[in-house]
């Protein structure tokens, strides 16, 4: 339901400023099982198509529940006047459309159902506002299907609330007027063999009248020509709201059809109708053209990930100031046409580049993110955004200036199957009310001295290492968890790397976060594990406990020997979470292509850095740090 309300409901309310499908429909669903099941069927199907680990069986199950009732009401006049069932049918028609590429055909079953519902309600004067809203959605669906299959419109346009006048009205009404006009044009083009010149001229006359009478709000508020150097073909046109865009699109469609079916122009050959399956198959999915900045430990992995494992992304460029890293890129990626750049700013100018993944040194994360945003690119930035909350906030501010762009900080554990399953179980109440969150990030010992050199720029072990655990705690305890933090304290030691002290860092540390509601977060981070990567989490509730990876394993192989039984452990963070990194890249790419919200709020990344930096300071100074409503205060101010 949350996914439907926050994301999918807007699909239906494009020409409905009253937002019936976002506000009214969810409330009605509480007392109408069929409508509720329709919401669940549609949402779960879309989530499964986006690769979010929803089994397609879930959608099929809810869909079947709907069909059991809807299949028996075709002759029940009372049921056909039920607005809740009509709304359910609207949702199921969208589900039907989603499944066309999967099934290879469209039987239009629910589209026909919408028409039956609308025909059954003969008196337009008594039609509810929800029924009217449903009619307009159904008509848009019908126009789309009729054009795709080049067939006549089946929906009746003879309803009392259909307004084709040019009188003063809101944007929704003006959009609906031209949608009806478009439906009439479709009917003219595909509804008969003989195209009357008189009818054609009447349609052209209405179109001209609509264009002359439309309010000034239907004019673009911004326009820019396409930039061929970026692979752009179409201009950028910005309108005030969705209803205007839908109206303009239907107007353009009507104009194109009238141009093709102008009876005054001789036609040498009839166009053969295309099936919707053929249309779907003939249009290959668009891929997000992305570049990767930085080719160090994580950068190489991100580059190969986007290059090999993300279906809807195409790696087109990489950048690194290090000549050895660029040499690696030329060897592994250059032969496939990936551009290799020394300077990040030059990569941003790569033709057609749409997004960047920033995996460079932490010290330049914020600057490169802001530069990419200012250049109009979507951004996936490795954690953290910066080593201080103040600098991290500058990225949030830059993103706010370009709301059309997707900007996300990569907290990979949110995309791990086990953590998602644990979160779902916690949300379902399996362990009661969660009270204690205990989590650790422990790297395998690296005797090369890498972590000592890295500490100069990393922000310290809590900002670099425990940042994942802090983000998990905010996720599990609520996205606004930081505003409920009461205090943080930490201690640390240098057990194997005394050189860390000159950078105010430690190789082992324990942190404690107290929330105002009494909940506790316990963190442990280390750079000296002997066996391998040991990242584990426990969530303790009033009725039970959830454990994630409490016994780290690289795979399911066990070695049975006279001395005992042993198994291997992941050697590094990537080995443990490589599937999560792939899922993160997939979901980020899909958000950019589909214009949907990113799964991790950017503001949360600032909160995580604020808490991590406070823990780091507490570890060095030995002082407990206090907060009030997200702001740091002195103990005496509480």
TrEMBL record:
Domain named GFO/IDH/MocA-like oxidoreductase: residues: 419-546
Picking any one GO biological process from the record gives:
NADPH regeneration
Question: Which terms does the record give in the GO molecular function aspect?
Answer: nucleotide binding; oxidoreductase activity
Cite the Pfam families for this sequence: Fungal_trans_2 (PF11951), GFO_IDH_MocA (PF01408), GFO_IDH_MocA_C3 (PF22725)
Q: Does the keyword Ligase apply?
A: no
Coiled coil regions in record = none
Task: Tell me what this protein is called.
Answer: NAD(P)-binding domain
- In which organism is this protein found? Purpureocillium lilacinum
């Amino acid at each position: 339901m949350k996914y439907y309300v926050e994301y999918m409901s807007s699909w239906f309310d494009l020409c409905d400023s009253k937002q019936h499908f976002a506000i009214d429909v969810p409330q009605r669903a509480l007392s109408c099982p069929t409508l509720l099941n329709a919401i669940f069927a549609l949402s779960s199907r879309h989530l499964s198509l986006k690769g979010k680990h929803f089994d397609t069986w879930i959608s099929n199950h809810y869909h079947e529940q709907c069909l059991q009732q809807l299949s028996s009401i075709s002759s029940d006049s009372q049921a056909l006047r039920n607005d809740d069932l009509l709304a359910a049918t609207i949702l199921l028609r969208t589900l039907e459309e989603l499944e066309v590429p999967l099934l290879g055909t469209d039987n239009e079953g629910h589209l026909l159902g919408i028409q039956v519902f609308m025909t059954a309600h003969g008196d337009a004067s008594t039609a509810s506002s929800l029924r009217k809203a449903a009619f307009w959605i159904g008509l848009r669906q019908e126009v789309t299907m009729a054009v795709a299959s080049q067939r006549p419109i089946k929906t009746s346009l003879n309803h009392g609330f259909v307004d084709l006048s040019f009188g003063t009205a809101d944007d929704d009404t003006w959009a609906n007027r031209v949608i009806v006009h478009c439906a009439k044009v479709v009917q003219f083009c595909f509804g008969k063999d003989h195209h009357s010149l008189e009818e054609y001229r009447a349609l052209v006359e209405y179109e001209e009248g609509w264009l002359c009478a439309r309010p000034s709000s239907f004019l673009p508020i911004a326009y820019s020509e396409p930039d061929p150097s970026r692979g752009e073909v179409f201009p950028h046109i910005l309108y005030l709201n969705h209803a205007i865009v839908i109206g303009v699109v239907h107007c353009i469609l009507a104009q194109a059809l009238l141009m093709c079916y102008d009876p005054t122009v001789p036609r040498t050959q009839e166009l053969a109708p295309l099936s919707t399956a053929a249309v779907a198959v003939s249009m290959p999915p668009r891929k997000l053209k992305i570049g990767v900045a930085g080719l160090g430990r994580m950068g190489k992995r991100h580059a190969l990930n986007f290059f090999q494992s993300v279906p809807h992304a195409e790696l087109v460029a990489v950048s690194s100031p290090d000549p050895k890293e660029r040499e690696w890129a030329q060897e592994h990626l250059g032969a496939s046409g990936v551009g290799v750049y020394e300077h990040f700013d030059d990569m941003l100018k790569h033709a057609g580049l749409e997004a960047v993944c920033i995996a460079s040194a932490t010290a330049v994360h914020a600057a490169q993110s802001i530069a990419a945003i200012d250049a109009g690119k979507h951004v996936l930035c490795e954690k953290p955004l910066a080593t201080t909350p103040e600098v991290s906030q500058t990225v949030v501010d830059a993103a706010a200036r370009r709301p059309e762009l997707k900007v996300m900080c990569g907290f990979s554990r949110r995309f791990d199957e086990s953590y998602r399953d644990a979160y779902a179980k916690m949300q379902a109440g399996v362990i009661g009310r969660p009270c204690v969150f205990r989590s650790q990030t422990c790297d395998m010992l690296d005797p090369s001295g890498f972590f000592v050199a890295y500490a100069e720029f990393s922000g310290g072990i809590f900002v670099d290492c425990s940042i994942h655990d802090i983000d998990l705690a905010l996720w599990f305890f609520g996205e606004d968890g930081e505003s409920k933090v009461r205090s943080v304290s930490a201690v640390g030691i240098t057990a194997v790397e005394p050189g860390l002290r000159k950078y105010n860092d430690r190789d082992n540390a324990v942190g404690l976060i107290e929330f105002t509601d009494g909940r506790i977060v316990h963190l442990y981070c280390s750079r000296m594990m002997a066996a391998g990567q040991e990242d584990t989490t426990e969530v303790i509730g009033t009725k039970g406990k959830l454990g994630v990876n409490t016994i780290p394993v690289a795979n399911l192989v066990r070695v049975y020997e006279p001395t005992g039984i042993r198994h291997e452990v992941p050697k590094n963070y990537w080995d443990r979470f490589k599937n999560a990194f792939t899922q993160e890249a997939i979901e980020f790419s899909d958000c950019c292509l589909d214009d949907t919200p990113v799964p991790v709020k950017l503001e949360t990344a600032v909160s995580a850095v604020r808490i991590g930096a406070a823990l780091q300071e507490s570890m060095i100074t030995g002082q407990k740090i206090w907060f009030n409503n997200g702001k740091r205060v002195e103990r005496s101010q509480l």
